[in-house]
Amino acid sequence: MNKIHLAFAVLCISNVIVHATEKNANTENKTHTKLMVGSRPYPADQVELSFIRTLHGGVQYVLAKSTNNVELINLIQAHLSTSAEQFKRGDFSVAELMHGFIMPGLAQLKLAKPDDIKFEYRALENGGKIHYSSDYPQFVSALHEWLEARAREHSNTDIPDHKLQHLTNSD
Known about the structure:
This is Aspartate carbamoyltransferase. By secondary structure, the protein is an alpha+beta fold.
């Protein structure tokens, strides 16, 4: 009889632990989502995000779904311009806040010295883009890992006209 009580107690404790773990995972996921929304000044459902791998790094596009939404386009452009400037200084704190501290490629990117990686922002008619590039293989690899992880996280939108621009060696 004692063994039955012990087995029942172990079973009950296991269920409590599993339930607490699931609840914690849900809370962390909700917290992560809130951080992403709070770090991005525009609503995700009103933009198209695209991360394209290139020979020397990659390109990130953020485009307004509505080309008439000037306020949204201005928010996108301000956010990308600020992000590119922060990245140039080696400041990836907003990226860490949005995507987590263990995002693929991020640790390597943070080791780069100024000018090891180029972060070039450009305003577009319907949003903006950041072109990421390096001549150093370890940073090219890190950029690829980082951009691919972001593409998986953000439901990468296929933007054929933009992709075609980056299939040459002149990226």
